[in-house]
Amino acid sequence: MREFKKLTPYEEAFQLMLNDISEIPDVEEVSLDEALGRVLAEDVKSPIDSPPFDRSAVDGYAVRAEDTFQAREYAPVELEVIYEITAGMESKAEVTSGKAVKLMTGNKMPKGANAVIMQEHVKREGNKIYVLRPVAPGQNVAFKGEDIKKGQVILKKGQILRPQDLSLLKSVGIKKVKVKRKPRVGIIVTGDELIEELDEKALTEGKILESNSIMLKGLVRQYFGEPVFYGVVPDDESTIKEKLERAKNECDLVLITGGSAFGDKDYAHRFVKLLFHGTTIKPGRPVGYGERVFVMSGYPVAVFAQFHLFVKYALAKLVGANFEPIKVKAKLTARVSSTLGRYEFVKVWYEDGKAKPIRKSGSGLISSLVESNGYITIPEDSEGYLEGEEVEVVLY
């Protein structure tokens, strides 16, 4: 099998790929129930102030702060309770000197009141309260617009919508948002050796159960996209060419696994004008990219690495997402070695500030992916990291 004459350094290959990807223009409007994980297509402004009125931040009594200035536990100030309100009510009484209104957290402040004294800081007898400590003007009050001003940008274009973002939107009365259309991602799996149903006899004769498709479908869904599966294709040149051309025409991005190297039946890369083919990454060295097509390895671990090092960033750019993977600092529990000139993708298990390298290293050992929850990278100019050294873990 012919070898690569030149391997493109990872960072160079990454920039070539990223510079070639353009954000898709298509936008759709969805309800908040459908918006989780979607990417905002425009800035969102609040239509109202939040809170929409001055409100109590505690359960207690709305008062004129000036009436409490002399209050002490040994010399409490007496005030008359003239009204009581519960959740969602508004006081019909105005707080004047010597008066108070009982209210709950979130209640609108009564006219005339400028502070709330916590109910724990008074003693009550009938319609009288005895204030045990003073409050300042504005104390225990959430003022109108204190959290959000009307017209304020509350979420920016490119935001990947989280549950708390949806809560914020609903709290200001927004029911629908404009988001980027999910990119259609074509998935083609190639290989004469692949079967889709368990057949023990076939397995003993050298066949392999195909598993890349289900993994890639899940990864595409996890990272902004909508997978379109074109099936498991034999190593037939005309069939691969036909499937690839169809997927390129119908999808925003195409992932084809198998046939990325230079074997006699490695056809996939022959039908794409590649910006690079062969990189310094390990595993997954034969990866290639061009014309919105990723030509990927056949082995699942290599495919997984190629997706995390390249494809998820391509998907993020397609939807204009403000995307940054979750990264944590950790200390290695064991030494990890590499060879100069390689950009190593090392699977680890991260827990309690420690990163344990997964020693299973074969590109076909899917269990090594299950046993990991993140990865570290070793750049081309490094021979690895020592036990106890601090590293940056990218979590899946």
TrEMBL record:
Family under the similarity heading: Belongs to the MoeA family.
Family annotation (InterPro entries): MoaB/Mog-like_dom_sf, MoaB/Mog_dom, MoeA-like, MoeA_C_domain_IV, MoeA_C_domain_IV_sf, MoeA_linker/N, MoeA_linker/N_sf
Lineage: Archaea, Methanobacteriati, Methanobacteriota, Thermococci, Thermococcales
The MoaB/Mog domain, residue ranges: 186-317
NCBIfam families assigned to the protein according to its UniProt record, in alphabetical order: Glp_gephyrin
Superkingdom of source: Archaea
The protein, known as: Molybdenum cofactor biosynthesis protein MoeA
PANTHER family cross-referenced by the UniProt entry: MOLYBDOPTERIN BIOSYNTHESIS PROTEIN, MOLYBDOPTERIN BIOSYNTHESIS PROTEIN MJ0666-RELATED
Organism expressing this protein natively: Thermococcus paralvinellae
Keywords attached to this entry: Molybdenum cofactor biosynthesis
Gene Ontology biological-process annotations: Mo-molybdopterin cofactor biosynthetic process
Protease found in the keyword field: no
